[in-house]
Specification:
Elements (H helix, E strand, L loop, with lengths): L2 E5 L5 H11 L5 H10 L4 E6 L2 E10 L6 E9 L12 H15 L4 E5 L4 H9 L3 E8 L5 E6 L3 H15 L3 E9 L2
Length: 178
């Protein structure tokens, strides 16, 4: 069966919730339903038959009216199933971008996991780093600084690591949809 990217449907909720909890955000089923129903045009699943093999979801920014935040994107990483690194994430992201444009958003913003493969995914898909956020041991934001580009951001990240010894230092990236 062909893999299909589509808006999440009520019949997908349990599988999408389980997938999201495994790969991204752990939350109660009730909170998941509230998340989906608060921004139903921005929660996509990739399905292979009845199996959910990817999710991509976002929500409007609370700070900037023109920005849609990408809150999570993941693909099944089970190497025996051959879903990872074959373009499913990029295809979901493209579908998400079309939905954002159709809803008159001009920018997609995302906080990247501190993982070179994840950062490379966003860079490959033409996202530009705009900030670094220092996250402390209790997941509190310690500092937030602007960056000009990825390379200078990498150097600044090392400085911030030495300065704070944080849990992580993540990139905030944006993609202009114009």
């Amino acid at each position: 069966m062909e893999k299909e990217i589509r808006l999440v449907q009520l019949t997908d909720y349990e599988r999408a919730h389980a997938f999201q909890c495994e790969y991204l955000d752990r939350e109660s089923f009730e909170d998941f339903v509230q998340r989906v129903e608060s921004a139903p045009d921005f929660y996509f699943v990739t399905v292979d038959g009845s199996e959910v093999v990817g999710v991509c979801y976002g929500s409007p920014s609370k700070k900037q009216e023109s920005v849609l935040n990408l809150n999570g994107i993941a693909v099944n990483l089970d190497h025996s199933k051959n879903y990872a690194r074959v373009g499913l994430g990029t295809n979901m992201l493209h579908t998400f971008e079309i939905a954002a444009k159709n809803s008159s958003y001009s920018t997609i913003g995302v906080g990247s996991a501190e993982d070179p493969k994840v950062e490379a995914f966003y860079l490959k898909n033409r996202f530009k780093p705009t900030e670094l956020v220092v996250i402390g041991s209790n997941y509190e934001q310690i500092e937030r600084i602007g960056v000009a580009d990825y390379e200078s951001g990498l150097l600044r990240r090392e400085e911030l690591r030495r300065k704070y010894n944080p849990r992580e230092v993540i990139f905030i990236l944006e993609k202009n949809l114009g």
